[in-house]
Design a protein that fits this description.
The protein contains 19 helices and no strands. The protein has 410 residues and is mainly alpha-helical. It starts with a helix and ends with a helix. Its main location: membrane.
Length: 410
C-alpha cells in the first residue's frame, strides 16, 4: 500500500469516527441559546447529550453483528442515511423533548461510523500496525473538537442553532459519497454469521470471555469516559461561572482538544520504545494524580480561568495515549468476531460516557466540582480495573488456568 493511499484511507476512517464527536462538540456553545429558545434550562438541554450517548451505546451493539454478517458498507449506508434524516429533525424541532428524541435517533445512525472504522482497521492493517493506525485516527478525531465548537459558536451567533444540524447533515451526506467511491470494502459478508438472538448473544459471550478484551475494554472504556464529564459540564462551567462568550468557549474547547493531538503524536513515537500496556498504565497513574489535584484545587478555589484550563490541558493529554492503545489491545485477539468486539468496546465506552455525563448533570451545583470529580473518578476507576484484571489473570495463569494472555498482560 502506497503512503498516499495509506494516508487517504486513514483520513476516511478518521472522518467516520469523527461523526459522533463532531455531533457532540459542535452544538455545545449553543446550549444557553437552545435553552432560551426552547423555554427550558441548560441542565435539561444537557439531557440531549445524554440521549445521544445512550443512542451510541445501543446502536453499536446492533451494528456489530450486522457488520459481520453483511460486510462493512451496507450497514454504513443505512446508518448514515438515518443520521442525515435525524439531523434534519433536530433542526426543525420546537421542544426540548423532541430534541432529546431526535438526538437519540441521530446517534443510532451515526454510531455506525465508530464501529465500522474500528473493524476496518482490523480488516485492512496487520496487527503490529493497528496501535499506530488507531493513533492516526485519534489524531483526526482530536482535530474535530478544535474545529467543531468554534464553528458552532460562530454559527449560533451569526445564524441560529438550527443551522448546526443542517451543517452536520450536509457533512455526512458528502461523506456517504466518499465512502461509496473510495473506502475499501474490508471484510466481505459472512453468511455463517447468524442474526438470531441466541447466536448473536453467543458471539458476544465469546468476545467477553476473552480476558484481554475484557480487561482493556473495561479499563479503557471508563478512562476514556473522562472527556464526557468535561464535555457535559464545560459549557456551564466556562460560560456561566467564568462568563466567557460562545466564541471564547469555542477557542477554549479547541485549545484543550490540542492536548489530545499532541499526545496522539507522542504515542506514535512511544510505541517504538514501549509496549501499549506500559503506556496505558503510566498514563492512568498520572491522570489519577492530576484528577485529585483538580478536585482539591476546585474545592479550595485555587484556580482562576487560566489555572483551570491549564490543569485540564495536562489531564486531557492522557486521552491521546489511553484510547488508541486500549483499542488495539482489546481487538487484537479477534479475527472472526471483530465487528462484534468493536461494537461491544464502543458501546461500553459510550455507555460509560452517557452515565458519566448524566451524573455530571444530576450533580449540577453551580461549581466545577461535578465535572472535575467525575474526570478523576474515570481515571482512578480505570487504573483499578486494569490492576485487578491483570492480577486476576496472572493468578489464574499461576494455577495453569490460562496461558495465551499472560505475555500480553505482563
Amino acid at each position: 500500500m502506497s503512503r498516499k493511499r495509506y494516508s487517504f484511507i486513514i483520513l476516511i476512517l478518521g472522518s467516520l469516527a469523527t461523526i459522533s464527536p463532531f455531533s457532540i462538540d459542535m452544538y455545545l456553545p449553543g446550549f444557553p441559546t437552545i435553552a432560551k429558545d426552547l423555554g427550558t434550562t441548560i441542565d435539561k438541554v444537557q439531557l440531549s447529550l445524554t440521549s445521544y450517548l445512550i443512542g451510541i451505546c445501543l446502536g453499536q451493539v446492533i451494528y456489530g453483528p450486522l457488520l459481520d454478517r453483511y460486510g462493512r458498507k451496507k450497514p454504513l449506508y443505512v446508518g448514515l442515511v438515518l443520521y442525515v434524516l435525524a439531523s434534519i429533525g433536530c433542526a426543525l424541532t420546537s421542544s426540548v423533548d423532541s430534541l432529546i428524541t431526535m438526538r437519540f435517533l441521530q446517534a443510532m445512525g451515526g454510531c455506525v461510523g465508530l464501529v465500522a472504522s474500528q473493524a476496518l482497521v482490523s480488516d485492512i492493517f496487520p496487527s503490529n500496525k493497528r496501535a499506530e493506525v488507531f493513533s492516526m485516527i485519534t489524531l483526526v478525531i482530536a482535530v474535530s473538537p478544535m474545529i467543531a465548537p468554534t464553528v458552532g459558536g460562530y454559527v449560533t451567533v451569526g445564524f441560529s442553532w438550527h443551522w448546526l444540524f443542517i451543517i452536520l447533515a450536509g457533512i455526512v451526506a458528502v461523506m456517504i459519497a466518499g465512502i461509496y467511491f473510495f473506502l475499501p470494502a474490508g471484510q466481505l459478508p459472512d453468511e455463517s454469521v447468524s442474526l438470531k438472538p441466541k447466536s448473536v448473544l453467543g458471539s458476544y459471550y465469546t468476545v467477553v470471555s476473552q480476558p484481554q478484551f475484557l480487561i482493556y475494554t473495561l479499563a479503557g472504556g471508563l478512562a476514556t469516559a473522562a472527556p464526557f464529564a468535561y464535555i457535559s459540564g464545560s459549557a456551564d462551567v466556562f460560560m456561566n461561572l467564568y462568563k466567557v462568550t460562545e466564541q471564547q468557549y469555542g477557542w477554549i474547547f479547541g485549545l484543550l482538544a490540542f492536548a489530545m493531538i499532541g499526545s496522539t503524536q507522542l504515542n506514535h513515537f512511544l510505541l517504538k520504545k514501549f509496549k501499549s500496556q506500559q503506556i496505558i498504565q503510566f498514563t492512568l497513574i498520572y491522570q489519577s494524580i492530576v484528577g485529585i489535584l483538580l478536585i482539591v484545587g476546585v474545592y479550595n478555589n485555587w484556580y482562576s480561568l487560566l489555572g483551570l484550563i491549564g490543569m485540564m490541558f495536562v489531564f486531557l493529554t492522557g486521552q491521546g495515549l489511553t484510547g488508541p492503545n486500549t483499542s488495539a489491545l482489546s481487538l487484537a485477539p479477534f479475527r472472526k468476531h471483530t465487528g462484534s468486539a468493536s461494537a461491544l468496546m464502543g458501546s461500553w465506552r459510550m455507555g460509560a460516557g452517557a452515565i458519566i455525563s448524566a451524573i455530571v448533570s444530576f450533580l449540577h451545583n453551580n461549581t466545577a466540582m461535578p465535572m472535575v470529580g467525575m474526570m478523576a473518578f474515570c481515571s482512578i476507576g480505570g487504573l483499578i480495573i486494569l490492576y485487578l484484571g491483570n492480577t486476576t489473570v496472572l493468578q489464574r495463569a499461576a494455577r495453569g488456568e490460562v496461558e495465551d494472555q499472560v505475555s500480553v498482560l505482563l
